[in-house]
Specification:
Order of helices and strands: HHEHHEEEEH
Radius of gyration: 17 Å
Helix content: 40-55%
Oligomer: single chain
Largest sheet: 5 strands, mixed
Strand content: 15-25%
Shape: globular
């Protein structure tokens, strides 16, 4: 592949560029790709206001969360991702800190053909502690129900035809 073709691919996929830059910064090893074939990439779906909420985050936070979601689409778990407590296995939380604030994005990666972004929020504990606000917990529960329903509707026809 010529350098020009490689550069063209980088311009077409800014998320790949961001992931590559993050993987090589600070002497870290590149992130392994279990699923590099673009045909194996899971679809990304947004639940409720999750996309709008994520877009309100600082650019640096959006970039890191975008890279983590991109990794999830290929079956990978990026740095700063941990299981979300209280839901099914495969529900993950992206944890980002920036300028003294905490940002979270919860997604479901257990679906065969898709990753669902359930909720994105700036963590603000009412008591100043580490517990997630109950409104955010409730939004995640509701979002999970919506994601499951959407997945059944969206992919039921494919399953029936397949």
């Amino acid at each position: 592949m010529s350098k020009q073709a490689f550069d063209h691919k980088q311009r077409q996929n800014p998320l790949a560029t961001i992931m590559r830059e993050r993987a090589y910064s600070g002497g870290e090893k590149p992130m392994p790709q279990a699923n590099p074939d673009p045909r194996q990439k899971k679809a990304l779906h947004w639940v409720g206001s999750s996309k709008k909420d994520l877009m309100s985050f600082p650019v640096e936070v959006m970039r890191d969360i975008g890279a983590a979601l991109g990794a999830a689409q290929f079956g990978e778990k990026a740095e700063g991702v941990k299981p979300w407590k209280g839901e099914a296995p495969g529900v993950m939380e992206i944890v980002e800190a920036f300028d003294g604030d905490a940002y979270r994005t919860v997604y479901a990666a257990f679906f065969e053909k898709a990753v669902y972004v359930i909720h994105a929020f700036q963590k603000k504990s009412p008591d100043g502690g580490s517990q997630t606000d109950q409104r955010d917990v409730d939004a995640i529960c509701i979002g999970m129900r919506s994601a499951r329903e959407d997945y059944k509707k969206r992919y039921a026809k494919e399953k029936a035809d397949g």
